[in-house]
Amino acid sequence: MRTFWNFNHTLRILNSWQSGCWVQVTCPTQEDEDYLTEELQIPPYFLDDIRDKDERARFDYDEGWQLIILRIPYVREVQSRTPHTTIPLGIILKDDVCVTVCNYETNMMIDFVAYQQKRGAGFTDAVDFVFRLFLSSAVWYLKRLKQISTLIEEAKQNLEDRVIDNEDLISLSRLQDSLTYFITSIRGNETLLSKLKFKLPVDELDADLIEDVNIEIQQARETANIYSHILDSTMETYASVINNNMSGVMKQMTSVSIILMFPTLIASIFGMNLINGMENHLWGMPLVVVGSIVVTGAFYWMFRRRAWL
User: What is the 3-state secondary structure (H, E, C) of 120-142?
Assistant: First the structure.
């Protein structure tokens, strides 16, 4: 799906392409790709790069085309090992052509359009547009990190309120994967931003905006690192609690085995087909049973006193 936006003064939808407008392409169909490559003459290989969900953040210059890939946060709606992840957003600039291509429908781009329409100021030029996309991505990284922080706090609460199982550790592992994606992508965006300062024609207004973007990206990077350390600590605590629980179970099972060993030993000794002096006495059997009960009770009392049971 492609949408044409006039971003002078405010964002307004256009019926067709006009010089200097923003072409937003989301979840491109074959028809959309044909339009980009045939009508706008965008390099086809760059569309393939954007399609690769693991493509790194970078800047390329090819025959006048300024080709930018920005990593943005994305939450999968379907069940996945890593629900919080990052995806590439392609930004393509040349003269009067300004195009963004993303193979996923994201809340960030929906919010970006809504916010710019509410702001009612539009963009001064394509460079201003690019850096505002950077700013929006940094803000959305912080939003997603807050959601991950909430999940970590819930995990800590579960640590106190109920018995821990493997599913809890698996959930924390998925959050750790998400934080790894976030940290890697934020660092890539930060490096890309430092390059674009010298690759794009930046004026004084853009310099102020870049400073704001730098602050937001640094905050997102530091926040992601902090949450990653907190999550590591939480996972270690989970593992320690599980090991302690397992040790307690093994201690109880060992204690029960030891207690049951003594009546078994007594019964085995007096049950052997040998002369033991009590085979002709009527009180022999009751004596063995009582002795087994007394020994078992004594060891049970001792183990309970030492909190082994």
Answer: CCECCCHHHHHHHHHHHHHHHHH
